User: Which sequence fits this backbone?
């Protein structure tokens, strides 16, 4: 039976079945009238991402007559819970069928696997800044990427009318990752940039951090956030070893893993539950990562940053990058925690290099008075107006 299942690749069979079912539902929903509505859809978490909240508020400020719906629902584990999730997809399909704009921040079966009636603009607003390690269609069929047959069955990243990137140099990588012409890739940094630059939000985070962790008041803090690794792989840097090495350099280390990875429970490793990686960047004195795109957020927050990549050769073969790593980042890189601690102790991170990294990968808003959220909202809604005119013609 196991051999038969492997030959049939039941996940691929299930993918085609899901597509067929959703297609039938979409046909039934086609007569539903579209409204002046924007639907923001994510399966990255069960809570509305800050980017979606800020984008929603910016859209409403631009035009209060537009209805904005935010739907946040992760795909749950287990067969029974997946059946419940399948029922939830009907809700998502209803909102897509009655919206003029659908914004997603990753792959969405609703956006890509089904055919939609005319009048819907589908926008891909990827959930990370910059363009560092390859993802999406760039690595289909490669180690760390999706099986080509499954990608085809799920129509992976098909159907986008507009793709958002954070800078001009990110347009070509995003066009490749999402299978669109580069002309469909617009430059508009994610709204999180506003929070990373906001002194009032920084002060609020500092107050909350000091309340939760009074023992760290007055101490230098290093934030370690390694990249998410597929196939159950763990970071090759031991958080405890890094914590001990950084303690010798005079820093208390906080380790924040990807939300999909369980937090480490090792004694001596701090994880600061209840505070996000983005917010921790606002109180950190040093940021450390291997290959995480959070390094671009650190650049916006003006946090001196360091790389530690003991498995660079192996990782590059499995995943690869959109740039020359680490040269194009201009950041100091170590191979061991002890080497990294020495670099931090010597202050090897260059403020000029951090500013250059920020300016290269994070574009500024259209005007000095416009926030990133407003610029993104305007970009999305201008495209929607054009699509409405084309549809009316």
Assistant:
């Amino acid at each position: 039976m196991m051999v038969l299942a492997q030959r049939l690749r039941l996940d691929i069979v299930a993918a085609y079945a899901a597509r067929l079912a959703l297609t039938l539902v979409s046909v039934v929903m086609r007569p539903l009238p579209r409204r002046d509505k924007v639907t923001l859809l994510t399966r990255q978490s069960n809570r509305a991402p800050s980017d979606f909240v800020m984008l929603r508020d910016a859209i409403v400020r631009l035009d209060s007559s537009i209805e904005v719906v935010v739907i946040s629902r992760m795909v749950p584990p287990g067969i029974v819970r997946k059946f419940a999730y399948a029922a939830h997809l009907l809700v998502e399909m209803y909102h897509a069928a009655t919206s003029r704009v659908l914004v997603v921040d990753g792959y969405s079966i609703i956006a890509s696997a089904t055919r939609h009636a005319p009048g819907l603009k589908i926008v891909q607003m990827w959930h990370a800044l910059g363009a560092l390690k390859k993802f999406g269609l760039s690595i289909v069929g490669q180690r760390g990427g999706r099986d080509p047959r499954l990608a085809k069955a799920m129509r992976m990243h098909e159907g986008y009318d507009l793709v958002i990137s954070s800078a001009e140099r990110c347009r070509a990588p995003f066009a490749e990752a999402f299978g669109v012409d580069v002309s469909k890739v617009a430059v508009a940094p994610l709204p999180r940039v506003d929070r990373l630059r906001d002194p009032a939000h920084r002060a609020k985070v500092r107050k909350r951090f000091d309340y939760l962790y009074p023992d760290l008041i007055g101490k230098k803090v290093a934030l370690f956030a390694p990249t998410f690794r597929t196939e159950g792989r763990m970071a090759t840097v031991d958080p405890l070893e890094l914590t001990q090495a950084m303690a010798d350099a005079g820093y208390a280390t906080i380790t924040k893993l990807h939300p999909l990875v369980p937090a480490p429970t090792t004694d001596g490793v701090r994880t600061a539950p209840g505070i996000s990686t983005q917010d921790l960047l606002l109180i950190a004195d040093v940021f450390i990562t291997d290959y995480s795109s959070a390094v671009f957020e650190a650049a916006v927050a003006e946090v001196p940053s360091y790389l530690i990549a003991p498995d660079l050769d192996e990782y590059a073969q499995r995943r690869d990058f959109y740039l020359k790593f680490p040269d194009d980042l201009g950041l100091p890189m170590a191979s061991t925690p002890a080497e990294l601690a020495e670099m931090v102790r010597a202050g090897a991170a260059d403020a000029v290099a951090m500013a250059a990294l920020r300016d290269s990968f994070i574009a500024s808003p259209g005007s000095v008075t416009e926030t990133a959220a407003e610029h993104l909202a305007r970009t999305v809604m201008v495209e929607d107006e054009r699509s409405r005119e084309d549809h009316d013609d």
